[in-house]
Amino acid sequence: MKVLVTGASGFVGMQVVDSLLKRNHEVVGTSRSKATSDITCEWITSDLLQPGEPHRVIQASKPDGILHAAWTIADRENHWTDPINEQWVEASLELAGSAVSCGVRRICAVGTCFEYDWPADLGCDEETTPLKDHIPYSAAKNRVRRKLTRLTDEAKVSFAWARLFHLYGPHERPSRLVGSVASALARGEIARCSKGEGFRDFMDVRDAGRALACVMTSSVCGPINVASGKSVRIAEVATMLGEIAGRPDLISLGSLPGRSSDPPRITANIGKLRENVGFSNSITLRQGLTDAMEYWRGKIQDSSRGLNAQ
Asked: Residue 37's pLDDT band (boundaries 50, 70, 90)?
């Protein structure tokens, strides 16, 4: 299968590209810039928010399927509420419309666990858990899903909607939980955290990339949770990173205020991913956090050497 991956230089996208290539699929990646030389697939540089660009990319790549992971997050701190989310709704619909017109047979787009109205004591289930527009970001994702479902149903195109939960790993932003704690530990600084009483579903982004590649190349349709299926207290993740780094004394739980809006639980039921798609995680939480710690140590050391060289 020839797959177009949008957002291919991003945190998730580059892992999807790597996984598809390892499964011997032909891959065309696209994003505003090719951020790393490690990406070895065919490449189209494009800003999909510019009028006509989604159609141009489809015409240039002529894919059999699309894995749509592009969305503006990494470089915008207020992405939860930014009006640019509305632009992504329109760009996503233009991309899918052009793809359908050009005979694309399979579309897999990336959603978010923030689409759910989270149960306090259960994992989110694709079929039974209600949805809720918490913030403009999740509201935009929900609109894209509804409109793409109608579009693909009418065109008889296979469509999957992969809802990502809490990812961590290589190239993570330092503002996220694991990136924040691990980067502080790598610098030998206090890692300030909230009490971390809530439960979350954490998944290594490399496993997420493999899962998305499996979803993309399967025939499974509709919403699919992409997660580990395990419920872990946030404080446990921070504490484990301190142990792995050999500096548990630097973990400062409760030194940052918690947010009253934070739900007690955001975890996933992964029966559909495991049984219908046939995917299972290969990276344990401890191994993933160990690798994340090594990644941040290397990044901090590289940064320090660069400063010293100047």
From this structure: low
What pLDDT does residue 261 have?
79
How many beta carbons lie within 10 A of that of residue 198, not counting itself? 18
Q: How far is CA 280 from CA 16, 127, 177, 230, 276, in A?
A: 16, 20, 24, 12, 11
**Partner residues linked to 5 by β-bridges:** 29, 67
DSSP sequence for 209-236: HHHHHHHHTS---EEEEES----EEHHH
Residues 6+ apart with CB under 8 A from 149: 159, 161
Residues whose CB falls within 8 Å of the CB of residue 75, separated by 6 or more in sequence, listed in order: none
The yes-or-no verdict on residue 309 having pLDDT over 50 is: no
- Provide mean pLDDT across the span 176-193: 96
C-alpha distances (whole Å) from 103 to each of 12, 62, 242 are 26, 9, 51
DSSP conformation class of 10: S
Domains and CATH numbers, the chain: 2-167+201-226 (3.40.50.720), 173-200+231-264+284-309 (3.90.25.10)
Is 9 exposed, middle or buried (CB count within 10 Å of its CB: 0-12, 13-18, 19+)?
buried
- How many alpha carbons lie under 13 Å from residue 61 in its C-beta half-sphere? 32
Q: Which residues are CB-contacts of 170 (< 8 A; sequence separation ≥ 6)?
A: 205, 206, 291, 292, 295
Q: What is the pLDDT confidence band of residue 308, given thresholds at 50, 70 and 90?
A: very low
- The residue count for the chain: 310
Sign of CA dihedral 204, 209, 211, 212: positive
Token pair, residue 37, equals 């030389």
Q: Are 46 and 53 in contact (CB under 8 A)?
A: yes
Confidence of residue 36 (pLDDT cuts 50, 70, 90): low
